Amino acid sequence: MSEPRPSDRHDASQPDDTFEEIVGEETQRDPDLAVIEAGSRTLRTYAGSPQGEAVPARPTDPETDKALRAVEQELAGRWGETKLEPSVTRIAALMDVLGEPQRAYPSIHITGTNGKTSTARMIEALLNAFELRTGRYTSPHVQSITERISLDGSPIEPERFTETYEDIKPYVEMVDSQQPYRLSFFEVLTGMAYAAFADAPVDVAVVEVGMGGTWDATNVIDSTVAVVTPISLDHTDRLGTTPAEIAGEKAGVIKQGATVILAQQPVDAAQVMLKKAVEVDATVAREGMEFGIVSREVAVGGQLLTLRGLGGAATEYTDIFLPLYGAHQAHNAAVALAAVEAFFGIGAEQARSLDIDAIRKAFAAVLSPGRLEVVRSSPTVVLDAAHNPAGAKAAADGISEAFSFSRLIGVVGTSGDKDVRGLLEAFEPIFAEVVVTQNSTERAMDADELAAIAVEVFGDDRVQVEPRLDDALEAAITLAEEDDEYAGAGVLVTGSVITVGEARLLLGRG
Question: What is the torsional sign of CA 128, 123, 225, 167?
Fold first, then answer.
C-alpha cells in the first residue's frame, strides 16, 4: 500500500497572519516521515474504540435475516428516494398519529450538498464523547439499510429495525389510506428513525436531510442547531440550477431562534442563508470567520488538525488526529465541532472550550465508510462515494495529497441523473486510465453510454468498458498490477454510493 505523504512545511515565522488568512489554506509542511508517524501514534493513544460497526453485515441468524428481508421488500414497494412529491404533509400526518416522537429530544439538523454524512458521524462521535445518548439518521446507506438509523454510534440492530417497522406499520397504513399518495420509502424510514430515537430514548438526534430542506421528510423537527455543509450543483431538476436557488430550498431547515453553522459557501448561496437567518432571528456562525481551521497537516492514516471554535482564540483545539483523508474532511471536522459547541451553548458571549481530551478521543475514533476508504492493499484499492463534480474534486484533491500513487486507475459507475461529464472531468487529471462500469440498480447509467462520455474526456486509449462491476474491479486491479510490485499503483472506485457499496461487498468488506 502506498503510504500517505507529508506536505510542505508552512512558514511559521509570520505571526501577524490573521485568522481569516489562515482559514482554508493548506499548511505547507515537510517534516521527516518518521516524525509524522511518531506523532500519529501518540495521538492515536487518545482514541477510544472506533465508532460501532460502521457497515454491518447481513444477520447470521436465518430468521432475523428473513424478517429483515421482508421489511426491505415492503419498503422497496413504495416510492423510491428519487420519486418525490414535495410536501411534508404525509410525514407530518404520520408524526401526529405516532404522538410526535420527533419532539421528545433536541436535534441537530444537517443539510448541504456534500459532506453531510461524514459531518453527522463526527457530530455523533463528539456528543458520545460527552456521554450523551445519540440517534443518527443518514442516507443513503453504503451496504445495509440498518446503517441509516444509528443509536449511540452503532447501526440499529436488525431485530430492533424490524420491530420498529412492525410497531409503526399500522399507523403508516392509516396515513396511507387518508392521503392521495402513500408514504414513500424515505418517509417511512424517517418515521422509523424518529420513533426509534424516542423509544431508546436518546438525548439528542443528529439528522441528515434526504434532499433539499424545506419539504424534506426530515423537516418536521425543530432543531436548535442547523448545519449547512458546502452547497454545489446537484439534483438540479428538483432543487434549482444555481447555488442560490438550491440554498433557498436548503434554508428551510433554519428554524426560529436557532443557531446556524455555515460551512464555506458560494457567495450567492451564503447570501440566501444569511437572509433566511435574519428572517427567523437565527444566530449565524460562519466558517472562516467565527470558527474554522487554524492548521492542518497530513499524517499517516489521516491528518493532524488545530481547530478554532466559536469562542475565538479562547476555544482553540490542538493536536487533533482525524483518521480521514482530504482537506474537505478537515472542513467537515471544523463544522462538526462548531455544531456541538453551539448545542452546548458555547459562542462569542460564552467563550469557553470543551474538554480537549474528549474532543481528541472523539475525532480519533471517527469512521466514514466509502469516503476515501482503503479496503485493500497490494495494490491499494480506495473507495469514494463522490457522485457530483464538487465531491469528485474533493476526492481527487484528497487522494492526490494523501497517497503517493505512481499511477491511479479509476473504476467509475454513476447514476444516470448526475452531471457525469463534470464528475469525469474532475477525475481526469489523476486517472491514468479509467474502467467504466455500472452498478446493479435501475438508476445506473449504462456502461456504454458512460464510456462514450469518458472517451470524450479521457481519449479512447485511456478508457476500458466492463459492464459488470466484478469484471471492472478485476480489470482495474490487473492494470494496477502491471506496474512493478513496488511501484505503488492504486485503484479508486467511485461515482455512486451504490457502486461503492457493491464494490465493498465484492472486495470482502461486507
Answer: negative
Max Cα-Cα span within the chain: 69
Identify the pLDDT of residue 201. 97
Pick from 1, 2, 3: nearest CA to 299? 3
Fill in the amino acid letter for 329: Q
Task: For residue 294, give Cα distances in angstroms to 318, 346, 353, 506.
Answer: 9, 19, 16, 40
Amino acid at 129: A
Rounded alpha-carbon distances, angstroms, from residue 43 to 305, 357, 372, 402 = 11, 10, 21, 18
Q: Which residue, 475, 468, 483, 466, is CA-closest to 378?
A: 483
Question: What's the rounded Cα separation, in Å, for the pair 433 and 430?
Answer: 9
pLDDT at 80 (0 to 100): 79
pTM of the entire predicted model: 0.86
Q: What is the pLDDT of residues 302-350, one digit of tens each?
A: 999 999 999 877 789 999 999 999 999 999 999 999 999 999 998 766 7
Q: Are 227 and 261 in contact (CB under 8 A)?
A: yes
Residue whose C-alpha cell reads 455555515 in the numeric block: 262
Distances from the Cα of 343 to the Cα of 71, 114, 294, angstroms:
35, 22, 22
60 backbone dihedrals φ, ψ, rounded to 5°: -80, -25
Q: What angle do CA 300, 306, 309 make, to 5 degrees?
A: 140
SS3 state at 492: strand
CA 478 to CA 473: how far, in whole Å?
8
297, 303 contact by CB (below 8 A): yes
The helix or strand, by DSSP H or E, that contains position 472, with its residue range, turns out to be helix 469-481
Residue 53 pLDDT: 56
- Asked if 342 and 68 touch (Cβ cutoff 8 Å), the reply is no
Check: CB of residue 304 under 8 Å from CB of residue 350. no
Using 70 as the pLDDT threshold, list the residues of the chain that sit under it.
1-54, 82-83, 233-240, 348-349, 351, 483-487, 509-510
Q: What is the 3-state secondary structure (H, E, C) of 143-192?
A: CCHHHHEEECCEECCHHHHHHHHHHHHHHHHHHHHHCCCCCCHHHHHHHH
Rounded Cα distance, 179 and 93, in Å? 9
Residue 393 has φ and ψ, to the nearest 5°, of -60, -45
Question: CA angle, corner 346, sides to 344 and 347, nearest 5?
Answer: 150
Compute how many other C-beta atoms are within 10 angstroms of the C-beta atom of residue 301: 21
In this structure, which amino acid lies at residue 249? E
Burial of 83 (0-12, 13-18, 19+ CB in 10 A): exposed
pLDDT digits (tens, 9 = 90+) for 130-167: 999 999 999 988 889 999 999 999 999 999 999 999 99
Cβ neighbours of residue 236 under 8 Å, at least 6 residues apart? 246
Which amino acid would we find at residue 113? T
- 435 Cβ contact list (under 8 Å, min separation 6): 409, 410, 411, 412, 464, 465, 466, 472, 475, 476, 479
